[in-house]
Amino acid sequence: PGDKEAGELGLAAVPGRQAAFRQALEEAVHYARAVGCPRIHVMAGRVPLGTDRAAVAGEMETTFIENLRYTADLLAREDMIGLLEPINNRITDPHYYLNTPHQAAAILEKVGRPNLKLQLDLFHCQIMDGNLSCNLETYFPLIGHIQIAQVPGRHEPDSPGELNFPYIFELLESLGYTGYVGCEYAPKGDTLEGLGWLRSYWESRGLQHGGTSKAAK
């Protein structure tokens, strides 16, 4: 994430911070290798304070593409995948550079490396664009990781909000998604109690806790 005390939230698209980005990436790879995690979120970073987003967009994209190509080459040697996550600028972070899956897909196309993927957080995607079914289908070939949270409260999927998660999970299954779904939300209370939605979902699908079929038992 860079220097949080200085207001940074990632470095990959921030002009002038290329050396710091590469050093941080090497450190991230070191930790990922140690814990056996094959995916790393490459954080784009914020538009520098005091600058106009439109005025620096071109330079930031150029920096981002340069750093992502470097990232792809480094991660390829480790058999790892780099992930780009759009973060909404309406609620969560008005200064974050990468805001929509459309922008991320365009960047990925320009970089052109197979080991860079889209980290699609449905919370951010809903706030920026909605149209989740179509977006999931459109960007599915690019998706390397999914994250979930209810909108607008960013709590458990079964908390009050805009998203129908049983439908979304079934859509992901029908699309053939076999990766992890990250619970990127703030529990309303206790973490384990907050996972009650998952136990209920498994039971509604005729599954044991842990996602195994009762019939198979």
Automatic annotation (TrEMBL):
<dbReference type="InterPro" id="IPR013022">
    <property type="entry name" value="Xyl_isomerase-like_TIM-brl"/>
</dbReference>
<dbReference type="InterPro" id="IPR036237">
    <property type="entry name" value="Xyl_isomerase-like_sf"/>
</dbReference>
<protein>
    <recommendedName>
        <fullName>Putative hydroxypyruvate isomerase</fullName>
        <ecNumber>5.3.1.22</ecNumber>
    </recommendedName>
</protein>
<feature type="active site" description="Proton donor/acceptor">
    <location>
        <position position="184"/>
    </location>
</feature>
<feature type="domain" description="Xylose isomerase-like TIM barrel">
    <location>
        <begin position="10"/>
        <end position="200"/>
    </location>
</feature>
<comment type="function">
    <text>Catalyzes the reversible isomerization between hydroxypyruvate and 2-hydroxy-3-oxopropanoate (also termed tartronate semialdehyde).</text>
</comment>
<dbReference type="InterPro" id="IPR026040">
    <property type="entry name" value="HyI-like"/>
</dbReference>
<feature type="active site" description="Proton donor/acceptor">
    <location>
        <position position="85"/>
    </location>
</feature>
<comment type="similarity">
    <text>Belongs to the hyi family.</text>
</comment>
<dbReference type="Pfam" id="PF01261">
    <property type="entry name" value="AP_endonuc_2"/>
</dbReference>
<keyword id="KW-0413">Isomerase</keyword>
<dbReference type="GO" id="GO:0046487">
    <property type="term" value="P:glyoxylate metabolic process"/>
</dbReference>
<dbReference type="GO" id="GO:0008903">
    <property type="term" value="F:hydroxypyruvate isomerase activity"/>
</dbReference>
<dbReference type="InterPro" id="IPR050417">
    <property type="entry name" value="Sugar_Epim/Isomerase"/>
</dbReference>
